[in-house]
Write the structure tokens for this entry.
Amino acid sequence: LITRAFRSQFVIPDFQDFIKDIEEMYWTAKSITDGKVASYIPQLARANSDNWGVSVCTIDGQRFSIGDVNVPFTLQSCSKPLTYAMALETLGPDVVHQYVGTEPSGRNFNELVLDHNMKPHNPMINAGAILVCSLLKSLDKPEMTLAEKFDYVMSFFSRLAGNEVLGFNNAVFLSEREAADRNYALGFYMREHKCYPDKTNLRECMDFYFQCCSMEANCDIMTIMAATLANGGICPITDEKVLRPDSVRNVLSLMHSCGMYDYSGQFAFKVGLPAKSGVSGAMLIVVPNVMGICTWSPPLDPLGNSCRGLQFCEELIKRFNFHKY
Ligand code: DON
């Protein structure tokens, strides 16, 4: 890092100027009062609408954070690209995609629907993520108990985040599990259609999915994960090779086409970057070969994306040439 600094070889050489733009965009988005915090899970309804944080981390480890970047939030659906990445890494894409497709569903994230092969459409919606959890549980180190598997996944996520330690919100987990009629319906519907590998214990698999949604981190931690994805799978903070480049390509492709719920097509058109949102109001945004970004603000638009996060991304594309096309 220091050698590159002396030679001015950073991917964003004028980082101080860049920070000024991020600050302006942060304050503009802060004044937005649109949106409602998610309330379908009682514990999520307790989120504070005023929280707003933005963290960036470049592929060469330059970092900047502004706002509520140290306040923990639950990963929710931002865990979906991470569990998918882990499944690709441990099982390989051929095995994973025997069970789950790569097509946007064009429907809500928790819609009771499978594709024409009777597989979940993709790993970024609930059905696909529940399926990926079953693969991680039943095919990769199947001898592990659920407790051991939880630790195993946590430490994998932590490696993506430069060895930062993630938390777990038990109240959200319990609330999530209590309010999960739709997810159970999806789980049983997939069992009816023999979507899971043999020996899948559905109750364990559902608990595992709720646990992944209830893991906790903050913007500062999540931005490192996004930066690892931006950097071809090598964590810019530890230099550890956490993911193979082909796993990263698959994860980013599906974040690009399916990561923003039913707004994914419009987001791909307007912003042109792979991203994933979660109902806690977090967004992971990847500028490939440049940087990772994490934004967090709980109020959501009717499609479930963070209002401030979306406005921030649209402004980012106006100011910088980051749109893929
Ligand atoms: O209801 C659920 O399954 C959620 N806890 C998942 C959350 C989420 O962010 C929705 N995403 N696709």
